[in-house]
Amino acid sequence: MQVAPCAALTLRAARADSAQRHVPYVVVSVSHTTRKPRAHEIDGRDYNFVAQAQFQELVGQAAFLEHARVFDNFYGTGAAQVHARLAQGHDVVLEIDWQGAQLVRRTMPECVTIFILPPSRAALQQRLQERRTDSAEAIARRLRDAVTDMSHCHEFDYVVINDRFDQAALDLVAILDGHGEALRADRPQLQPLLGSLLG
Questions:
Q1: What is the three-state SS of 54-121?
Q2: Which contacts of 172-177 are long-range, i.e. CB under 8 A and separated by 24 or more positions?
Q3: Spatial separation of the C-alpha atoms in residues 71 and 90, rounded to whole Å
Q4: How many other CB atoms are found less than 10 A from the CB of residue 2?
Q5: How far, in Å, CA of 2 to CA of 160, rounded?
Q6: What is the Cα 116 distance to its own chain's centre?
Q7: Would you tell me how many other CB atoms lie within 10 Å of the CB of residue 156?
Q8: What residues contact 101, with CB distance under 8 A and at least 6 apart?
Q9: By the 8 A CB rule, do 162 and 116 touch?
Q10: pLDDT band at residue 42, thresholds of 50, 70 and 90?
Q11: Do 198 and 150 form a contact (C-beta atoms < 8 A)?
């Protein structure tokens, strides 16, 4: 379950037959981060956990498609990993924040951008608390920062509301399959929700 608001970008593989673009061809990019792993996380599966010095070395080598500081840690998407997956014919989903999305759009303007919103501020707070990985102070900071994050959702092609996980997953599949017109970011039905999230 996605807890905080986030951006997801889909980079399309260059395939002759667009009918081949189905969910089995989609892979999720594994980001690098300097934060400590949570109890259930596995290095290389959830994130590539690296020391800050190693992360800065990768930045110096231009190894990232995008990288940003989020809260007190650094996150980055490895360029080689993404390009290799695209070359293998996969569509690649990047789970990144709006800052990273802006950087990727500049270098890969053909990407499809999806912003994932919580159904309410209360639901976001409850999910952060139930995760039991952050202090009360960290949760308060995340909630404050989430307002800024969510204010960028209009920059994206699509917006998915993560109210019920199963439905949010179906919405993502619809977008990936090219049937996401009802989920466009500029749809008027989003305005009441955005008013309550950003107000």
A1: HHHHHHHCCCEEEEEEECCEEEEEEHHHHHHHHHCCCEEEEEECHHHHHHHHHHCCCCEEEEEECCCH
A2: 172/8, 172/114, 173/23, 175/10, 175/112, 175/114, 176/10, 176/21, 176/23, 176/26, 176/91, 177/21, 177/22, 177/23
A3: 31
A4: 15
A5: 11
A6: 8
A7: 22
A8: 7, 9, 66, 113, 152, 155, 156
A9: yes
A10: very high
A11: yes
CA 53 to chain centre: 24
| CA–CA gap between residue 42 and residue 23 (Å, rounded) | 24
pLDDT digits (tens, 9 = 90+) for 132-143: 888 899 899 989
Domain 6-198 has CATH 3.40.50.300: yes
For 20, the token pair is 């081949």
HSE (side-chain half, CA atoms, 13 Å) at 52: 5
pLDDT single digits (tens) 86-128:
999 888 999 898 989 999 999 999 899 999 999 999 999 999 9
Half-sphere exposure of 99 (CA within 13 A, CB side): 13
The tokens of 197 are what?
């999230």
From the list 159, 182, 179, the residue with the least C-alpha distance to 22 is: 179
- Environment class of 121 (CB within 10 Å of its CB; exposed 0-12, middle 13-18, buried 19+): middle
Of residues 178, 136, 128, 132, the one with CA closest to residue 157? 178
What ranges do the domains of the chain cover? 6-198
